[in-house]
Description:
2 domains
Amino acid sequence: MSLEKKTLILHAILQKYERVAVAFSGGVDSSFLLKSALSVLGAGNVLVLYGRSCLISHQEQQLAENWPVRHGFGGVEFQVVELQPLFWKEFVSNTTRRCYYCKLRMYKEFFEEMRGRELQILLDGTNTDDLKDGRPGLQAIHELGVKTPLVQAGFDKKDVRACSRDLTLDTWDIPSSSCLATRIPSGLEITEDRLRTAESYEEGMKDLGFIGCRVHLHPVQEETVFLQLQHADFNIFFKQGLRLAVVRFFQKSGVRNIFLDLVGR
């Protein structure tokens, strides 16, 4: 199916909803979904819900909260929902069901925000590629009746990026992101210190030019990390000077063992 056809289907789906809330993360998918909803329904019929928490880096929070102004939608209602995931025992224990519990809690709070505004439809930016990953959070989405119009219209990640580029969204080529809890191995308790440690490591890698790098903590050894680079960054990394700069950065942070994921992301 062509992108034009998928776009027509998406717009028809959105038009049918009339008034919606959009679960917004600031990433590629939710940005495209939000732009589409605003274009089809108008700013007065769209509520943007953004969950701010310790799981998101400060830089990503700023980019998400500035999105409407950057894209000419300064008048849209943008509601920041303050979340406290470190008080959610089932989340902090960090089992393989962590994402399910997080999404369930977050979207329940979103629905609470919507009730006061007489809104019933919550949209999520899941695309068809996400269905292949076995993501626990998808179960929570289905249980709560959250709508996934990108899936309904047949959009995969490549489609979303192509359309976002055509719409001049500055999110079209940003790396896929996930919350900082994904850097903590399953079974290891999620704490504020561990989240901030992972964030500081990734900010340091960004300063060295590795945008989208993920730094995973070791389940036992605090002085060991695992690097996951973007595919395009491998050639840069193996230039002698830059590789050594990465080593020096981590050594200054108390890290002695640095393992590189050769598959990348």
